[in-house]
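Handout, section 3.2

Students often ask what a structure token actually looks like in practice. Rather than define it abstractly, here is a full record for Putative regulator of Ras-like GTPase activity (Roadblock/LC7/MglB family). The first block is the sequence as you would receive it.
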Amino acid sequence: MNNTDWMLDEVVNVPHVRNAILLTADGLLQAHSAGISRDQADAYAAALSGLQSLSRATAEFCTDDPHTSWRQTLVEFAGGYVLTIAAGEGAYLAVSCTDAADLETVTYRMHKLVDRLGKEMTSPPRHGAGRT
């Protein structure tokens, strides 16, 4: 188990929250809660990084301010939600929950977790990968 996996389980303790994952902007899984397998979490991390890229690219749809930055993505499905927030430079925290979840409580706990983990949840861009 990763050092941050158990901390993600704390978010999952919020009523009606199912799973939580920590991912990098380029889709690499950093940590996952106990209720989801590594293979599932890897697949969701890759998909959610693409969703974040699309979300950031559509900021101008909401405002003419070129300095508008992405804050959160909420996707609603029949029966539940996926919420994703920034978790440091190049990192995101994503949580899935049922439609019975109190979204305000869920996002509050997500932000508290990000604050608590601070630099541990930061994944800076990779430069010069493979160079010696």
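Discussion prompt for tutorial groups: The radius of gyration is 15 Å. How would you have guessed this from the sequence alone?
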